[in-house]
Each structure stands twice: as C-alpha cells, then as structure tokens.
Amino acid sequence: MSEEQTQELLQQMQALEAYMTDLLQKEQSIMKLLQEATGAIESMKALCDTQLETLVPIGMGAYVKATIPPNEKMVVNIGAGASIEQDKNSAINYVEERIKELEIVLQQLSAQKHEVALRLEHGQREMNRLLQASQSNQ
Q: Which of 15, 24, 36, 90 could disulfide-link 86, Cβ–Cβ 3.0 to 4.6 Å?
C-alpha cells in the first residue's frame, strides 16, 4: 500500500475519532436532560394539594421567598418558545413521553458509537498491517 493510501487511512481514522468524540458529547447532553426530566417528574409528584412556601433562585446566589398554590395547573414548555398550562397528571405524562424519546435517542447514539468503534478497530488493524508490511519491505 502506498504512502498516499496510508495517509488516507490515517485521515479517515482521525475523522472517526472526532465523530466518536461528538457522539460522546451528545450522549452526555442527553444523559443530563434525562436526569433533569426525572427530577422534574419527582418534583411534580412531590407537590401536594396544599399551599407551600419555597425559595426561588433569581441569580448570583440570591433567592426570593415564594408561595406555591395548590397545584391545580402547571405550565409546560412544549418547544419553540411555546408553553401550555396542563393539570399535574398531564404535565407528568408529557415529561414521561419526552423521557421515552430521549431514551430512543440514547439507543441510537449507542448503536452509532458501536459502529464507529468497530470501524476504528478495523482501521487500527489495517494500519498495523500496513506498518508491518512496510517494515518487512525494508
């Protein structure tokens, strides 16, 4: 195999490594979203039918005391800057559906990572074979 082909293989492997890094970053982002969604569901379920007092962060370590009325309705962000008011159970169901969608994305990312890992492994074997062949030719 020529030096040109070796360089091409090296570039392909570098591109695959960059793609793998991108997939890992996406996976971390999805995991954070899943944790946030799970926490949101737990918080919604914990809200009771009585009035509660809490502290709301307003930034830079400052908080304001707030009263949460009985949770008849919740406001849920549905994307594109739009929010809707829903009852507690509908809001929980909405977030649970988003969790299912995120889990599907995680499965797809896992499959892509597996494919890239196999291609990287194949490229590494090919590179090792080329190195051995070039050393035996010398």
A: 90
